[in-house]
Amino acid sequence: MTETRREFLGTTGAGLAGAAAIIGAAGTAFAAGSGMKGDGGLTEHTLPPLPYAYDALEPFIDEKTMKIHHDKHHAGYVKGLNAAEKALAEARAAGNFDLVQHWSRKAAFTGGGHFLHSMFWKVMAPAGKGGGGEPGGALAHLIKRDFGSFDTFKAHFSAAAKGVEGSGWGLLHYRPADGRLLVLQAENQHKLSPWGSAPILGIDVWEHAYYLNYQNNRGAYIKQWWNVVNWDQVSKNMASLKKVA
Ligand code: MN3
User: Fold this and answer.
1) How far is the CA of 175 from the centre of ligand 1 (A)?
2) Which domains can be identified in the chain, with CATH numbers?
3) pLDDT tens-digit map of 55-98
4) I need a surface site. Which of 27, 33, 52, 128 has the fewest CB within 10 A?
Protein backbone atom coordinates (compact mmCIF):
# COMPACT_ATOMS: atom_id res chain seq x y z
CA MET A 1 0.00 0.00 0.00
CA THR A 2 1.44 3.37 -0.94
CA GLU A 3 1.56 6.36 1.35
CA THR A 4 -0.91 8.13 -0.90
CA ARG A 5 -3.38 5.31 -0.61
CA ARG A 6 -3.02 5.22 3.16
CA GLU A 7 -3.74 8.91 3.32
CA PHE A 8 -6.65 8.52 0.98
CA LEU A 9 -8.24 5.85 3.14
CA GLY A 10 -7.55 7.75 6.33
CA THR A 11 -9.10 10.94 5.07
CA THR A 12 -12.18 9.38 3.62
CA GLY A 13 -12.59 7.27 6.73
CA ALA A 14 -13.19 10.46 8.69
CA GLY A 15 -16.59 10.86 7.09
CA LEU A 16 -18.86 8.15 8.35
CA ALA A 17 -21.70 8.69 5.93
CA GLY A 18 -22.39 7.10 2.59
CA ALA A 19 -19.52 6.24 0.32
CA ALA A 20 -16.95 7.57 2.75
CA ALA A 21 -17.92 4.97 5.33
CA ILE A 22 -17.74 2.29 2.68
CA ILE A 23 -14.11 3.10 2.01
CA GLY A 24 -13.19 3.90 5.59
CA ALA A 25 -14.53 0.93 7.47
CA ALA A 26 -13.76 -1.62 4.78
CA GLY A 27 -10.30 -0.06 4.60
CA THR A 28 -7.92 -2.85 3.90
CA ALA A 29 -10.41 -5.04 2.11
CA PHE A 30 -11.13 -2.35 -0.43
CA ALA A 31 -7.55 -1.17 -0.65
CA ALA A 32 -6.37 -4.66 -1.52
CA GLY A 33 -8.13 -4.71 -4.83
CA SER A 34 -9.23 -1.21 -5.61
CA GLY A 35 -7.11 0.69 -8.05
CA MET A 36 -7.79 4.28 -8.98
CA LYS A 37 -8.04 4.73 -12.71
CA GLY A 38 -7.52 7.91 -14.61
CA ASP A 39 -11.08 8.13 -15.79
CA GLY A 40 -12.58 10.92 -13.76
CA GLY A 41 -11.70 9.44 -10.39
CA LEU A 42 -13.69 6.26 -10.71
CA THR A 43 -12.58 3.40 -8.51
CA GLU A 44 -12.67 -0.03 -10.05
CA HIS A 45 -13.97 -2.13 -7.18
CA THR A 46 -12.77 -5.70 -7.08
CA LEU A 47 -13.80 -8.79 -5.15
CA PRO A 48 -11.49 -9.29 -2.16
CA PRO A 49 -10.35 -12.89 -1.70
CA LEU A 50 -11.66 -14.87 1.25
CA PRO A 51 -9.09 -14.76 4.06
CA TYR A 52 -9.45 -18.57 4.50
CA ALA A 53 -10.52 -21.63 2.54
CA TYR A 54 -14.16 -22.07 1.48
CA ASP A 55 -14.56 -24.96 3.93
CA ALA A 56 -12.72 -23.28 6.82
CA LEU A 57 -15.88 -22.31 8.70
CA GLU A 58 -17.41 -25.79 8.66
CA PRO A 59 -19.41 -27.25 10.26
CA PHE A 60 -21.02 -23.91 11.10
CA ILE A 61 -21.06 -22.50 7.57
CA ASP A 62 -20.71 -25.04 4.78
CA GLU A 63 -18.27 -24.92 1.88
CA LYS A 64 -20.90 -24.72 -0.85
CA THR A 65 -22.68 -21.81 0.78
CA MET A 66 -19.40 -19.92 1.18
CA LYS A 67 -18.41 -20.53 -2.43
CA ILE A 68 -21.71 -19.37 -3.90
CA HIS A 69 -21.98 -16.51 -1.44
CA HIS A 70 -18.52 -15.11 -2.11
CA ASP A 71 -18.01 -16.00 -5.78
CA LYS A 72 -21.52 -15.24 -7.03
CA HIS A 73 -23.42 -12.96 -4.66
CA HIS A 74 -20.58 -10.71 -3.52
CA ALA A 75 -19.10 -10.66 -7.02
CA GLY A 76 -22.48 -9.52 -8.31
CA TYR A 77 -22.50 -6.55 -5.95
CA VAL A 78 -19.00 -5.54 -7.03
CA LYS A 79 -20.07 -5.64 -10.66
CA GLY A 80 -23.25 -3.73 -9.91
CA LEU A 81 -21.43 -1.03 -7.95
CA ASN A 82 -18.93 -0.47 -10.75
CA ALA A 83 -21.79 -0.22 -13.23
CA ALA A 84 -23.73 2.25 -11.07
CA GLU A 85 -20.77 4.54 -10.45
CA LYS A 86 -19.87 4.46 -14.13
CA ALA A 87 -23.44 5.31 -15.10
CA LEU A 88 -23.44 8.27 -12.69
CA ALA A 89 -20.13 9.50 -14.13
CA GLU A 90 -21.57 9.20 -17.64
CA ALA A 91 -24.66 11.12 -16.56
CA ARG A 92 -22.43 13.96 -15.32
CA ALA A 93 -20.44 13.95 -18.54
CA ALA A 94 -23.59 14.07 -20.63
CA GLY A 95 -25.41 16.52 -18.36
CA ASN A 96 -28.35 14.13 -18.42
CA PHE A 97 -29.62 13.24 -14.95
CA ASP A 98 -32.90 11.60 -15.97
CA LEU A 99 -31.83 8.31 -14.37
CA VAL A 100 -30.06 9.74 -11.33
CA GLN A 101 -32.57 8.26 -8.89
CA HIS A 102 -32.28 4.81 -10.44
CA TRP A 103 -28.48 4.74 -10.36
CA SER A 104 -28.26 6.33 -6.92
CA ARG A 105 -30.43 3.54 -5.57
CA LYS A 106 -28.34 0.93 -7.36
CA ALA A 107 -25.15 2.47 -5.98
CA ALA A 108 -26.52 2.38 -2.42
CA PHE A 109 -27.74 -1.21 -2.74
CA THR A 110 -24.68 -2.67 -4.42
CA GLY A 111 -22.27 -0.47 -2.47
CA GLY A 112 -23.86 -1.60 0.77
CA GLY A 113 -23.53 -5.19 -0.42
CA HIS A 114 -19.87 -4.81 -1.33
CA PHE A 115 -18.99 -3.09 1.94
CA LEU A 116 -20.89 -5.44 4.24
CA HIS A 117 -19.67 -8.62 2.58
CA SER A 118 -16.07 -7.34 2.60
CA MET A 119 -16.46 -6.86 6.35
CA PHE A 120 -18.38 -10.12 6.83
CA TRP A 121 -15.60 -12.39 5.54
CA LYS A 122 -13.07 -10.69 7.79
CA VAL A 123 -15.08 -10.78 11.00
CA MET A 124 -15.23 -14.57 10.73
CA ALA A 125 -12.46 -17.11 11.28
CA PRO A 126 -12.30 -20.88 11.76
CA ALA A 127 -13.68 -21.95 15.12
CA GLY A 128 -10.92 -22.24 17.69
CA LYS A 129 -8.42 -20.65 15.28
CA GLY A 130 -9.40 -17.04 15.68
CA GLY A 131 -13.14 -17.67 15.63
CA GLY A 132 -15.46 -17.88 18.63
CA GLY A 133 -15.01 -17.06 22.28
CA GLU A 134 -15.42 -13.56 23.63
CA PRO A 135 -13.88 -10.19 22.86
CA GLY A 136 -11.17 -8.71 25.05
CA GLY A 137 -9.71 -5.30 25.78
CA ALA A 138 -11.56 -2.08 25.06
CA LEU A 139 -14.30 -3.83 23.11
CA ALA A 140 -15.13 -6.13 26.02
CA HIS A 141 -15.27 -3.11 28.31
CA LEU A 142 -17.64 -1.20 26.01
CA ILE A 143 -19.91 -4.20 25.53
CA LYS A 144 -20.23 -4.57 29.29
CA ARG A 145 -20.84 -0.84 29.75
CA ASP A 146 -23.39 -0.46 26.93
CA PHE A 147 -25.24 -3.77 27.17
CA GLY A 148 -24.67 -4.91 30.76
CA SER A 149 -22.92 -8.15 29.86
CA PHE A 150 -21.62 -10.09 26.88
CA ASP A 151 -24.54 -12.50 27.14
CA THR A 152 -27.06 -9.66 27.09
CA PHE A 153 -25.33 -8.18 24.05
CA LYS A 154 -25.46 -11.58 22.31
CA ALA A 155 -29.16 -11.92 23.10
CA HIS A 156 -29.91 -8.43 21.78
CA PHE A 157 -27.81 -8.87 18.64
CA SER A 158 -29.24 -12.33 17.94
CA ALA A 159 -32.81 -11.09 18.34
CA ALA A 160 -32.15 -8.12 16.04
CA ALA A 161 -30.61 -10.38 13.38
CA LYS A 162 -33.40 -12.95 13.65
CA GLY A 163 -36.04 -10.25 13.51
CA VAL A 164 -34.93 -8.61 10.27
CA GLU A 165 -37.95 -8.50 7.98
CA GLY A 166 -37.05 -10.30 4.79
CA SER A 167 -33.42 -10.05 3.70
CA GLY A 168 -30.87 -8.08 5.66
CA TRP A 169 -28.22 -7.95 8.34
CA GLY A 170 -27.79 -7.84 12.10
CA LEU A 171 -25.15 -5.23 12.86
CA LEU A 172 -23.03 -3.90 15.70
CA HIS A 173 -22.14 -0.27 15.07
CA TYR A 174 -19.61 1.97 16.76
CA ARG A 175 -20.49 5.69 17.03
CA PRO A 176 -17.31 7.79 17.36
CA ALA A 177 -19.11 10.97 18.48
CA ASP A 178 -19.94 9.52 21.89
CA GLY A 179 -18.03 6.25 21.80
CA ARG A 180 -21.15 4.09 22.03
CA LEU A 181 -21.92 0.67 20.61
CA LEU A 182 -25.29 0.17 18.93
CA VAL A 183 -27.09 -2.97 17.82
CA LEU A 184 -28.95 -2.30 14.57
CA GLN A 185 -30.74 -4.04 11.77
CA ALA A 186 -30.30 -3.40 8.07
CA GLU A 187 -32.91 -4.32 5.51
CA ASN A 188 -31.31 -5.50 2.28
CA GLN A 189 -27.88 -3.98 2.83
CA HIS A 190 -28.47 -0.27 3.13
CA LYS A 191 -31.79 0.54 4.78
CA LEU A 192 -32.52 1.41 8.44
CA SER A 193 -28.95 2.37 9.34
CA PRO A 194 -28.57 5.81 10.89
CA TRP A 195 -25.81 8.29 10.06
CA GLY A 196 -22.86 8.93 12.32
CA SER A 197 -21.95 5.35 13.09
CA ALA A 198 -20.45 2.49 11.14
CA PRO A 199 -20.63 -1.29 11.43
CA ILE A 200 -17.80 -3.19 13.09
CA LEU A 201 -19.55 -6.59 13.14
CA GLY A 202 -22.34 -7.98 11.02
CA ILE A 203 -24.17 -11.19 10.22
CA ASP A 204 -25.73 -11.70 6.83
CA VAL A 205 -29.26 -13.07 7.32
CA TRP A 206 -30.26 -13.20 3.66
CA GLU A 207 -31.42 -16.74 2.96
CA HIS A 208 -28.47 -17.24 0.59
CA ALA A 209 -26.20 -17.04 3.66
CA TYR A 210 -27.66 -20.10 5.40
CA TYR A 211 -30.42 -21.85 3.49
CA LEU A 212 -28.41 -24.85 2.17
CA ASN A 213 -27.43 -25.89 5.68
CA TYR A 214 -30.16 -24.50 7.90
CA GLN A 215 -33.11 -24.16 5.50
CA ASN A 216 -35.61 -21.75 7.06
CA ASN A 217 -34.12 -21.94 10.56
CA ARG A 218 -32.46 -18.55 10.73
CA GLY A 219 -32.27 -18.74 14.52
CA ALA A 220 -30.15 -21.92 14.42
CA TYR A 221 -27.76 -20.32 11.93
CA ILE A 222 -27.34 -17.26 14.13
CA LYS A 223 -26.72 -19.42 17.20
CA GLN A 224 -23.97 -21.38 15.42
CA TRP A 225 -22.46 -18.29 13.79
CA TRP A 226 -21.10 -17.07 17.14
CA ASN A 227 -18.60 -19.97 16.92
CA VAL A 228 -16.81 -18.28 14.03
CA VAL A 229 -16.83 -14.61 15.05
CA ASN A 230 -13.32 -13.15 14.85
CA TRP A 231 -13.31 -10.77 17.81
CA ASP A 232 -9.78 -9.54 17.15
CA GLN A 233 -10.95 -8.22 13.80
CA VAL A 234 -14.02 -6.61 15.38
CA SER A 235 -11.72 -4.82 17.83
CA LYS A 236 -9.57 -3.66 14.94
CA ASN A 237 -12.63 -2.34 13.11
CA MET A 238 -13.59 -0.34 16.19
CA ALA A 239 -10.05 0.98 16.65
CA SER A 240 -9.93 2.17 13.02
CA LEU A 241 -13.05 4.26 13.62
CA LYS A 242 -11.72 5.68 16.87
CA LYS A 243 -8.67 7.01 15.06
CA VAL A 244 -10.73 9.13 12.72
CA ALA A 245 -13.25 10.38 15.29
MN1 MN3 B 1 -24.94 -12.05 1.33
Assistant:
1) 24
2) 1-245 (3.55.40.20)
3) 999 999 999 999 999 999 999 999 999 999 999 999 999 999 99
4) 128
Question: 10 Å Cβ neighbour count for 162?
Answer: 16
Residue 64, C-beta contacts closer than 8 angstroms, at least 6 positions apart: 212
Residue 138's H or E segment, with its range, is helix 137-147
Q: What is the Å distance from ligand 1's center to 153 Cα?
A: 23
For residue 93, report the distance from its CA to the centre of ligand 1, in Å: 33
Rounded distance between C-alpha atoms, residue 25 and residue 23, angstroms: 6
What separation in Å is there between the alpha carbon of 48 and the centre of ligand 1?
14
pTM to 2 decimal places: 0.85
Measured from the Cβ of residue 4, the count of other Cβ atoms closer than 10 Å reads: 9
CA distances in angstroms from 190 to 104, 116, 193, 195, 199, listed in the order given: 12, 9, 7, 11, 11
Percent of the chain predicted with pLDDT > 90 = 80
